[in-house]
What does this fold into?
Amino acid sequence: MVAGRKYWIVIWYGILFLGLLGLWASVYWGRRTHWKNSEEVLRALGTILVSVGMLILLYRPALPIWETAGQVLLVYALICFIGAFILGRRAERERPTRPSIEQAALQLIDSTTQPGSRISGATTVSPDPSSQAAPPHSAT
It folds into this structure.
């Protein structure tokens, strides 16, 4: 017997809805990024599998095969979550490192404080004499 079984069923239906929403979003984004977000797809599948497995176990069907099916779904969900973790770590390692904003600012300050150094790509702007402001007109 599970305390608050009806509430847990509602909660797991909510998690199932979030998993379906996450799967839809990750598939949509995956098609745009040529499936570089495969860990997100696995995470969404894991969420769906764990919620369906828990719902099967909470409903307690009469046949023992359903209890086994619920447990198998939970194991598959665990495999999906572990796979998502591994793929996410691999993608993070392969991503080129960008200097942070602070590092870029420090490099900029260092390059401008050295004598004779110029910022790459910087241009000197001088005032254009033809664009001088005209004297204000007097209103009559």
Q: What stands out?
A: The mean pLDDT is 82. Residues 64-94 form the longest helix (31 residues). The helical segments are 5-32, 38-59, 64-94, 101-113. The two ends are 93 Å apart (CA to CA).
